[in-house]
Amino acid sequence: MTGIPQPFGLLAEVTHQCPLHCVYCSNPVELFERSDELTTDDWLRAIRQAAELGVLQVHFSGGEPLVRGDLETLVAECRGLGLYTNLITSGLGLTERRAESLVSAGLNSAQLSIQGDTAESTNLVAASKRFDKKEAAARIIRDAGLPLNMNVVLHRVNLDRLDAIIDVCVSWGAERLELANTQYYGWALRNRELLLPSKTQLDEAVAVYERRKAELAERMELLWILPDYYEPYPKPCMGGWAQTALTVAPDGRVYPCPVAEEITTMEFASVRDHDLKWIWAESPAFQAFRGTDWMPDPCRSCSRKELDFGGCRCQAFALTGDAGRTDPVCIHSSDHHLVQDALDRANGGDGADPDTDREQLVYRRPTVSARRS
Amino acid sequence: MDESELTDKPRLASKAMLRHDNVRDVELLLLPERVVLLNKSGAAILGLCDGNRTVQQVVEQLEQDFEATDLLNDVMTFLKDARGRGWVVT
Question: What is the ipTM score, two decimals?
Answer without folding.
Answer: 0.88
